[in-house]
Amino acid sequence: MNASSRTTQTAMQPDTNTETIEPQSGRLEIPPQPSLLWPNILTIGVGAIVLAAGAGLQISWADIPQIPANVANYLQLMFASPNWEKLPRALTEMWRSISMAWLGAILCVVVSVPLGMLAARGVGPAWLRAILRGLFAIIRAVPEVIIAIILLTVTGLTPFTGALALGIAGIGTQGKWVYESIESAKEGASEAVRAAGGTTAEVTRWALWPAVAPSIMSFALYRFEINIRTSAVLGLVGAGGIGSMLSNYTNYREWDTVGMLLIVVIVTTMIVDAISGAIRRRIMEGTRIRELARSA
Amino acid sequence: MSASRELVLPPRPRNRGRTALVVLAVVAFTVATCIPAIGGVEIDLASIAKNWRNGADKLIELLQPNFAFFPRTVLPMLETLQMAVVGAVIAALVSVPLTLWAAKPTNPNSTGRFVVRTIINVIRSVPDLVYATILVAMVGVGALPGLLTLILFDLGIIVKLVSEAIDSADHGYMEAGRAAGGSQFQINRATALPQTWSLFTNQWLYTLELNVRISAILGIVGAGGIGRLLDERRGFYAYGDVSVIILEILLVVVLIEFFSNVIRKQLTK
Questions:
Q1: Residues in chain A within 8 Å Cβ distance of B254
Q2: Which residue among A58, A98, A246 sits closest to B130, beta carbon to beta carbon?
Q3: What Rg do the C-alpha atoms of chain A give, in angstroms?
Q4: Nearest residue in B to A159, CA atom
Q5: Of residues B78, B133, B230, nearest to A250 (C-beta)
Q6: CB of A267 within 8 A of CB of A220?
Q7: Cβ A237–B220 below 8 Å, yes or no?
Q8: Is the pLDDT confidence value at B192 over 60?
């Protein structure tokens, strides 16, 4: 298809150059339609896989029409009159989850920034890069819950375990983000440092770090946001915090308390996201124009 | 060159005060999260020093996978994959109208936009396993609560990310549609949608990846898939079996990541 369109172009070029635009036969040459054979085969293949997957699932499809009524019923049980009596305890547990998330984020960032930098092309030696990247990939594949379960045997059922699990589980993703952002940083500055005779350490300090520090800090805050959600999950396996409370009351079927807890989780998460998002924007986009004008 | 004209370095920006303030705030927050009296995390390094052998033993057991267990993992793994695929597809279908509804250029009606965005934000702020726990209590144990969890979770991601991408992009083509007298629906159908397919596909592939990861643990709360087996083997302290399952999840996740990267490269070419 490419070749044919190029020939049409070259054929038309002499016309425009000599400025003899004739009506010719009044027909524009339309490029041939691209073949839809492969996209069609692909679509049919994907569709077949999806249908097979759906048919194979052990779901009683007859129950599905009842789901909306069911869900509406439970939503009413949960949110019609939430049980506010346990709110103080819920807030303490939520703060515990936030603490877990924050400590986990700090631990994760402290470990993954140096490791991630070493794993970037142009910083660490090739063998170290391969080892570190493999390590990150393995950590990413192991669910946080599994890491928490292993840690439980060491530190017991405490929020500290949760913080450690969040810290370790985050290293995989965080390290990947660090080396990817270093590798996508513009080459110019590091070339300049190297041309001035800088060692790899100096290149990292004076060219790479200033370039990627804002995005690394932004990622660090983002890790905190992710951890808040995950800390609720860790609570389900016994690491304490709001998740433990949620799973307990769900097991007791005390729906009015569950409703209250969900409201606490949702509101807190949205507030934290909003604050952290605002700080992240400030880090990535810099001072607003209004503030610049004031300082000038 | 005149010698009298010296180069004057601009003064170094002085934000030492603000840096100190930021550091102080971070330290203060960290200290506050470490006070058990107000519900913080008690940092208990002594127990690590005392019990690290337990964890090490467990890791050593995990490092000796019992491959004889592998045949029993095939069917649950298949169920996990089926849940991931079906969940991703249903979420993909539902996400298209919702996304167009939630983005400013494709939906000028601010009330409708606000409603959809609020719902999506609420959906996003509930963690996946919490959905699974509650849905298991609502609709019973099995693949169905898992599937519903995945759909809700995926919708939160796709609608948020794609609608924000549509918001921040430039939309000359939509103006062309409006100039030609199209209704908002026609403009969306004929111009906005073809322009955003690649954004959508990117997120769909990403949610498929995430789904495999998540559905692997959904079983812990009874929502089907390989997580149920994982939880069961862990309950029996059969760590050799657990590590086979983890290795399998690792393999599947890496394969899916590889293929979706290949597809993404094809799409962006």
A1: 137, 141
A2: A246
A3: 29
A4: B41
A5: B133
A6: no
A7: yes
A8: yes
| Cross-chain Cβ contact A155/B51 below 8 Å | yes
- Give the pLDDT score at A26: 66
Number of C-beta neighbours around residue A92 at 10 A? 16
CB contact under 8 A, B234 and A149: yes
Q: How many CA atoms lie within 13 A of A151 on its CB side?
A: 25
- Nearest CB neighbour to B41, from listed A142, A159, A230: A159
Are B47 and A99 an interchain contact pair (Cβ–Cβ within 8 Å)?
Answer: no
A120: alpha, beta or left, given left = phi > 0 and alpha = psi -120 to 50?
beta
Q: Which of these ranges, A40-49, A135-144, A277-286, B1-10, has the smallest mean pLDDT?
A: B1-10
Instruction: Give B144→chain A minimum CA distance, Å.
Output: 6
- Given a cut of 70, whether residue A12 has pLDDT beyond it is no
Confidence of residue A50 (pLDDT cuts 50, 70, 90): confident
Angle formed at CA B165 by CA B160 and CA B166, multiple of 5 degrees = 100
Which residue among A64, A71, A266 places its CB closest to the CB of B126? A266
Interchain CB distance below 8 Å, A145 and B89: no
Distance from CA of A213 to the nearest CA of B (A): 14
Torsion A196-A202-A208-A212 (CA) sign: negative
Contacts of B62 in chain A (CB under 8 A): 150
The pair of three-digit structure tokens given for residue B161, joined into one six-digit string: 């990310």
- Cα end-to-end span (Å), chain A: 57
The answer to whether the Cβ–Cβ distance between A266 and B139 falls below 8 Å is no
Q: Chain B partners of A154 at a C-beta cutoff of 8 Å?
A: 47-48, 51-52, 54-55
Residues of B in contact with A156 (CB under 8 A): 47, 51
Contact indicator for A98, A228 with CB cutoff of 8 Å: yes
- Cβ neighbours for B190, distance < 8 A, ≥ 6 positions apart: B177, B182
Nearest-10 crossing angle of helices A255-285, A209-236: 180
The per-residue pLDDT for range B53-85, each reduced to its tens digit, is: 777 887 888 788 888 888 888 888 888 888 889
Mutate to test the interface with A, among B26, B30, B41 (most CBs of A within 10 A): B41
- In 3D, which of A232, A83, A272 has the Cα closest to residue B131? A232
Spell out the SS3 assignment of chain B.
CCCCCCCCCCCCCCCHHHHHHHHHHHHHHHHHHCCHHHCCCCCCHHHHHHHHHHHHHHHHHHCCCCHHHHHHHHHHHHHHHHHHHHHHHHHHHHHHHHHHHHCCCCCCCHHHHHHHHHHHHHHHCCCHHHHHHHHHHHHCCCHHHHHHHHHHHHHHHHHHHHHHHHHHCCCHHHHHHHHCCCCHHHHHHHHHHHHHHHHHHHHHHHHHHHHHHHHHHHHHHCCCCHHHHHHHHHHCCCHHHHHHHHHHHHHHHHHHHHHHHHHHHHHHC
